[in-house]
Amino acid sequence: MSALLATDGLTKTFGGIVAVDGLDIAVDESELVGLIGPNGSGKTTTLNLVTGFHAPTGGAVLFDGDDVTGMKPYQVSKRGIGRTFQISKPFGRMTVFENMLVPNVPYGPKEREERIWKLLEELHLDHVAEHRADALSGGQKKLLELARVLMLEPKLVLLDEPAAGVNPALMDEIIADIKQINERGTAILVIEHDMSVISELCERVIVMNAGRQVTTGTFEEIRNDERVREAYLGGA
Amino acid sequence: MVSLGLLAQQIVNGLFFGGQLALIAIGLTLIWGVARVLNFSHGAMFMVGGYVGFFALGFTGSVAAAILASIVVVFALGWVTEFALLEPMRDREEFDIASMVVTLGLAIFLENAILVGVGSRRRAFPALTEEVWRVAGLTISVQRFVIFLISVFALAALFLVISRTKLGLAIRAVSQDDQTALLMGVRPRRVYAITLGCSAALAGLAGVLLAPLFTVYPSVGWYPFLLAFVVVMVGGLGSVRGTLIAAMGLAIVRSVSTIWVAAESAMVLLFAIMIAVLLINPDGIGGWIDG
Known about the structure:
The complex is a heterodimer of chains A (about 240) and B (about 290). Chain A is of the alpha/beta class and about 240 residues long. In chain A, about 35% of the residues lie in helices and about 25% in strands. Chain A has helices at about 45-50, 75-80, 95-100, 110-120, 140-150, 170-185, 195-200, 220-225, 225-235, and strands at about 5-15, 15-25, 25-30, 30-35, 60-65, 65, 80-85, 155-160, 185-190, 205-210, 210-215. The termini of chain A are far apart. Chain B is built from 13 helices and two strands. Chain B has helices spanning about 5-35, 40-60, 65-85, 95-120, 140-165, 165-175, 180-185, 190-210, 210-215, 220-235, 240-255, 265-280, 285-290, and strands at about 130-135, 140. The interface of A and B includes residues 77, 91, 103, 132 and 152 of A.
């Protein structure tokens, strides 16, 4: 398999602080990869660099065979990278259905509506389609964000802490949904602090610390890796 | 004791005045709500609309052409304002303040450019019609009625665009969260420019519609701007519905209060209402009605 997303020496400094330091990571097509690391290790900054919210100080982002370094977020989204946020951001003063209409997709009204209903059903949101988005529960907001980003038919979805603020009862459902989306061929890179979620979801895990990749492997492999323990415990 | 007839007359007058106020104020609130600009050049857009209408009328002899020309030219002016003056500053942290200063500068520039270019003389804009209807004891100026109808039509069109179209959806998305909108493939900068254009076009339309009442001169925009500012503060900066309610409410209060006090004193009353509303709820009427 060829790498769908690859960063090559990706670097970002804020003033004197190096947030991402020559990062080389790769995500293959249809892969479901976890991105973990202690707070401040540069995970969210990496997502911001890949999606065009920050311009990198150095290095490159390659996606689907093209150099997308420094592209604007709407250009990146058009090429097939979708993203959700740590704190979910539905458009609160719109209904769930209206939220689904926002993504800029090329097909006509009828096909668009069919797709919306299909996604809402799959993510168990069809019964709240006419509710205002700010009236949803934390978990439903995460699902809506996911459904909305899937409207763009991305090749890769970046999920920033899908488990944060979600009722545990709904968590199993979200995990199952993420797996299902992945099984249909969408590659997923997920940042998550909840290790039970990572172990259940991810075939492979990338561990970051201080802006670099420490190691990568299956959950079992990285769990027994001395370097990972050091990264988390701050040992020298 | 006030006669019911006089009261009814003043309410009708207030309603017509409210339509005019809403036409000016909605653009001001929309620009803030969507593009985060407190547009001090909104009155200048009104003024430019009046001049474009005046010259277009002289050139073509058609009122419809004058109205159309004002809308088109002032839309373009709003669009260019966003692209040339505001966009380069959008990434700065102090954009709110900078945008006020820049639009104030633009207002002064436009006023003086007109002063240099066409002079300070007041240009009389012919009345659409002098006709007056008498209905159920009320005196209704046909001109004011027509202005009211056109205002209602323009605002209804705006509401339809915002609530029913893809562009409107993009406008609402950007006004709530421009970063997320970006990820959805929406381009906020284009939405800002269209919003600036539409808001300016509303001010330009008001400028030409009200030209028969105000006449046209370089500083003609400041008074309507000040009134619109009061309306927007009471209605809630950024709230379209709140601003509409405030425009109608304040216009009727002003109109009815002139039964007892002079028109200037009625202005004092409007400012007093504004201060009271801001003291109780800084988000204005919008803070109560928009969830």
